Amino acid sequence: MSAPTSISDTSFRPPPTSDAVAKHNAVVLAAAMALGGSSPAIVVSLGGLVGQALAENKELATLPVSLLNLGLALGTIPAAMLMRRAGRRIGYIVGAGIGLAGGCLAAFGIASYSFVLFCLGTLVIGSYGSFNQSYRFAATDAASDAFKPKAISWVMTGGLIAGVIGPQTVIWTRDAVPAAPFAGAFLGQAALALLSMMIVFLLRPAPVSIASTEAGGGRPLLEIVRQPRFVVAAVTGLVSYSLMTFMMTAAPLAMIGCGHSVGAAALGIQWHILAMFGPSFFTGRLISRFGKGRVTAAGLVLIALSAIIGLSGITIAHFWITLILLGVGWNFGFIGATALVTDCYRPQERAKVQAANDFLIFGSVALASFSSGKLLSAGGWETVNWLVFPPVAIALFLLAWQQRTKAGAPA
Predict the structure, then answer these.
(1) pLDDT of 206-219, one tens digit each?
(2) Element holding 63 (H helix, E strand)
(3) How far is CA 269 from CA 321, 344, 373, in A?
(4) CA 302 from chain center: how many Å?
(5) The pLDDT of residue 243
(6) How many CA atoms lie within 13 A of 186 on its CB side?
(7) CB-hemisphere CA count at 13 Å for 19?
């Protein structure tokens, strides 16, 4: 369940008269996203439940979900390096193979009652996600400037479909292996990765490549990240993504603890993921009309509102509305923050600044998902919701301060 990264990748430019290759690749990548992008939903839906069953220390129940995010963070740079050297198609085939291996390892961990092997499996699945995160950017490799927004939208449609496929895979396959509950769902995840491997084999190379000029040059990274504008952008992105993960990780366990079914929890995650990706078709237009700061602030307010709903009751409706508002809030907050980051660097600095931003975000996401399990175990769902407000208040304060002072020299 994760947002896009774009570090150090070779860019491509097709002949200006045709977008045929770009359209073909956008369709292929949308299909791959629909299959591969379902993996986080499966891990988030079941990771905490399986962890609770296998871990001796119940405070470690959400560790498998935390490792999913850690794997994503650790895999980002190796994935980009592989694709730079071997190309998109080979890189994505290797990535899908990693996803296949991760799903099988997680299923074996469940069947052998090994919490360590299950955690290792979700870590590997997370590294598969680091390949999937670049699908949106790969769709623009061969695209003209006019078609690039459409190419990205096509791939995002795959993300919407993944929000359905993932939870439905849980519902259909969770009892497929009677002796090992939920192992079937991870075998299903592995099968989806295998199908994705076949799909990405259909990718076509972009007609003309242009050597990247981003490998070096520009200002030192420390100088860039010390800009007030980068600090504000990174903090708002970090808060949006971390709080979304913090609540999303705890929600399925909280629902089960409140007497709701596994199916209800999986459907809640499904609605959450749809809410995360659905608004993306118009978020860009909202940013153009109202500004990056305002849309980011609206996302943070929606995240706070989701916590208010979470505190107001424990019915299925309360949980589902909380997860839906949380998804929309993440969309506005994270996409707005990402747009703010793009104001902080020059073209030749793009790779290292985006990499720094991604490591900050995904590192904090792993910490958030890990701490949510401990806090849920210690203080319950109510505590998880109350802890949302202080980070939101800090991020909103920084945004308001930036709007007033217009701090930061031009990049």
Answers:
(1) 764 443 444 456 78
(2) helix 63-86
(3) 11, 34, 17
(4) 18
(5) 93
(6) 30
(7) 16
Alpha-carbon separation of residue 22 from 13, 205, 349 (angstroms):
10, 9, 26
Q: Report d(CA 269, CA 147) in Å as an integer.
A: 32
**Paired sense of beta strands 209-210 and 11-12, if any:** antiparallel
Would you say 376 and 252 are in contact if contact means Cβ atoms under 8 Å apart? Answer: no
Hunting for tokens 């030749």 — which residue is that?
A: 348
| Confidence (pLDDT) at 207 | 64
Structure tokens, 77: 């740079």
How would you classify residue 270: left for phi > 0, otherwise alpha for psi between -120 and 50, otherwise beta? alpha
What does the alpha-carbon distance between residue 151 and residue 89 come to, in Å, rounded to a whole number?
Answer: 17
The domains of the chain, with CATH numbers, are 1-212 (1.20.1250.20), 216-406 (1.20.1250.20)
pLDDT tens per residue across span 3-57: 444 333 444 444 444 678 888 988 999 899 999 988 988 998 888 889 888 988 8
The C-alpha atoms of residue 300 and residue 292 are separated, in whole angstroms, by 13
What are the two backbone dihedrals, phi and then psi, of residue 43, each rounded to the nearest 5 degrees? -65, -45
> Which of 188, 153, 167, 122 lies closest to 320, judged by CA?
167
CB distance 132 to 3 below 8 Å: no
Residue 9 confidence (pLDDT): 40
Q: Residue 41 corresponds to which amino acid?
A: A
Return the SS3 of 387: coil
What distance in Å separates the CA atoms of residue 163 and residue 324, rounded to the nearest whole number?
12
69, 370 contact by CB (below 8 A):
no
Nearest partner of 100 among 38, 190, 32, 34, judged by Cα: 190
Tell me which residue of 278, 276, 277, 255 sits closest to 266, measured CA to CA: 255
Residue 411: name the closest of 336, 333, 348 by CA.
348
pLDDT-flagged residues of the chain (< 70): 1-18, 136-137, 140, 145-150, 152-153, 207-217, 342, 347-352, 354-355, 406-411
> Residue 399 has what pLDDT?
92
Q: Which residue has the tokens 């971390």?
A: 242
Number of H helices, E strands in the chain: 16, 2
Cα separation of 171 and 208, whole Å?
44
Name the β-bridge partners of 209.
12
Query: Does an H or E element contain 298, and which?
Result: helix 292-311
